[in-house]
Amino acid sequence: MIFAVLQRLGQMLFVMIGISALVFLIFFATPGSDPAARLAGRNASPETVEAIRKDFGFDRPLPVQYVIMMNRLFVTQDLTSFVNRGMRVVPAVAQAAPVTLSLVAGAAVLWVIGGIFVGVVAALSRDTLLDRGLMVLALIGVSMPVYWLGEVMNLMTQSRFHDTVFFSWVPSLGYKPLLTDPWGWFKTLIIPWFTLAALYIGIYGRVLRANLVEAYQEDFIRTARAKGLSPTRVMVRHALRTSLIPFVTMFGLDFGVLVGGSALLTEVVFGLNGVGRLTYQALLNLDLPMVLGTVMYASFFVVVANALVDVVYVLIDPRVRES
Amino acid sequence: MTPSIPSNVASRTTGLSAPDTSIHGTGETCLSPRVPLMSARSLVKTFTVGRTFRPGSGRTLHAVDGISLDVFPAETLGLVGESGSGKSTLGRCLTRLYDIDGGTLSFEGSDITKADTRALKPVRRKVQMIFQDPSASLNPRRRVRDVLAEVLKVHRIREGAGIEERLGELMDLVGLRQEYLDRYPHEFSGGQRQRIGIARALAVEPTLIVADEPVSALDVSVQAQIVNLFSELREKLDLTYVFIAHDLAVVRQVSTRVAVMYLGSIVETGETDALYARPSHPYTQALLSAIPQPHNRSRRGRILLTGEIPSPLDPPAGCKFSTRCPHAQAVCREVRPPLTAISNERSVACHFPLA
Amino acid sequence: MTAAEKPILLDVNGLTVSFATDRGMVKAVRDVSFSVREGEILSIVGESGSGKSVTLLSLLGLHDRKTTRVDGMVAFRGRGILDLNPSELRRIRGREIGLISQDPMTALNPVYTIGWQIAEQIRAHEAISARAAKKRAVELLGEVGLSNPQEAVDRYPHQLSGGMRQRAVIAMALSCNPALLVADEPTTALDVTVQAQVLDLLLRLRKDFGSAIILITHDMGVVSEVADRVAVMYAGRIVERGETEAMFKSPLHPYSWGLMGSIPPLTGPRLARLKSIPGMPPTPDRIGEGCGFAPRCAFARPACLERPPLRMIGTQAALCILEEPERSALRRTVLSPEEFA
User: Fold this and answer.
1) Facing C281 at nearest CB: one of B219, B252, B277
2) Domain total for chain B?
3) pLDDT tens, residue by residue, C72-82
């Protein structure tokens, strides 16, 4: 057991190192471009470029450059982006991370509950009008672009209907920290949560419905019904329980990717300074250290989410326990 | 047998008789003048299960555990056994669908143990395999005509108008109407699909057909049709079969000689009627007595084996059947008995064979 | 009291099951009638598509209510099952009628232990603690012949062999001591030596618990070993029924003759050819009111296009136009008397 955990941790570390090396190579070892000039930004004096070249060891072999870069990113944590007037990478990411995490975690709660609700109700009322209606709604949720839905929500809650009783509580755009202002945190995020969740409720509801309908064809569901169990118990303890296995896989991947910065559009629309936005701006400015930092951060979450999915797998599926 | 008659003809005229050393530990003494069509010596096929990235992990499963057997021209060798006996794996080794991990395999005198794809091509033409579920091997988007014609073209068996003629012959052989050539696999019932599977195997004019559970997925009334078809084709085309099945009654109906398998080894082999009437290995006896028979309703002498077949990953030491054998003694749990000839036509792997 | 005098447990009369398909309603089961007495083993034999499994599912009300229509009468201990509301039906399922499925691998939920699944059924019908239910599960597993029930109770289905799983399924079906067990091909997925053990177990359960059993199978050998009475189904109808002994001695319906002739014998002289039935079973949408077997029957005549009459001979009954002595004469042309003793 301990060996398996260590093996898993080793694998994660291996993947992270691999990603960091790959990203480093793409950004700093591309032939024909001078990484020092890139780091210095536009209109930098030759002295500055020369100083950077020396500082980052760009005149030394690639492995040395890589080690210096990783050392500055993770150990001394003083990697700075020149373009943004000396913004340090690690603190910038650390500041943006809670925003993204808050946004995605809240939305995840909503989409898991909503997805299960839609999937279960649709599967139970299979081939009825209710089922069809829910599936059409889910499809609409999947098809609506998140930035468009976000802008519509903003239009309604921030300007058009802001003065009505329904939306007068909605604060202006921006993020409020959870620890200092929990109520404000909740109020600013509730609209973004629903906006981001709409897409995923649609996807998860449709996938879960398909899984449940398939599960109901299984022999063990017939056994469960033949045992004299109530329809609720057959659904919850047997059909839903076994359908959760693919559901968890999907959730792990989506959650990891979103926390890693894919909630960019939602962040931009709602003026949340999260990691997605940070990455976006870094890319616009060709701020390579920042991009390196955010990519490492994103890959960390994807890798961790994958590892967590594996752990949850072991908990919910006894068949994988042995192997 | 008169020595003047060529060996293969002799075997056909004597019908069901099997050679004295048909299956033998090493087969070094071949007293019979008959030359085997296919011959396996100490054949081994292993699989590794549960392998992870950790080196040295995973366990070795001996699916075929040192089997020696001969297949003689014009005979039908029945391979019977329960799940995990390795009978299907052995069938796939004989047709070289699997690579062989140990021992030797020869066909018509030439060694094909390690033959590569090119060297195997002429062998593939002469040795064909028929599977339990023919629909799995029939492309659903291709008509029967295309499936069969392709085989003829690949092996250059007929050309031009000859192809059309041969297609007609094949359909006649397997008892299907010629207009079915233009249908797709899903338009057929299970029995008809198996007939198409047989037609495809026959298309290349093989000498040996290895049939792996060809009737076990079929309903009883249809199963009988296909069993009869196998018998007819053997007579018409001088075919040799290795007929793999778990249904002992079906095997008795089609086979001239039977080999009983248990956990990757042959425990007994002999001429069909004699083996069914007087089994020598306790496993064969128990297997036969376990079959419910509508034709003989008195259930005298039923031997109810306790326990189940051990995992092939962890076979018992000594005789593999010793854990379930009603006659097992101390020596059985320690020494594995070799397959030994006890009479001209019977070999058995048992320390205490039944009289 | 002999079996024939025991009270009738299940009485099925004129059961007809129709499915809604693209081509309209298709009858999968037509006017099926049979009864099971307490402690009796009735075997329903038939090939795939004969309607035997559909019959069984409708006995438990397990058919899909949206696409299936069930007509006729199914009385369990005098109560009409088809008219029960869902909660009344649930009190019968599992408690009064236990189901044993064909494939024990898929019949058990892979994510729960054997003990959990047995206890779940007990607790669905009785107000007892989880601990007491689990103790009962251990007892039941011992009852069906698992060598180490204490350990097996905490095993997941995939950790057991096929035979052990089928025993666990049987233990679960038995858990509320039902008066009737319905078994859908319970040994088809098993090896012969294990099948022999499971058949032995079923016979012992009948003796020890007095459960009646409806055994669905395609294997005439299994029928002859365990059944008291047999019903042969073909194309949605019961074409012949009667006591096992009598039916194997003198089958009435040409389809039964064909079935018996199709099975290669294990002893005695080998046949040059099996007496197979030509053609194949019809799909339900191709069956009219006439005899469903007529297209494959060597003795069919124009009158077979009409609905075949039910002829009774002693304890046997068959849906066939043939009459004695012609029937016996024709049978001799298909089955030689020495084949059946």
Assistant:
1) B219
2) 1
3) 999 999 999 98
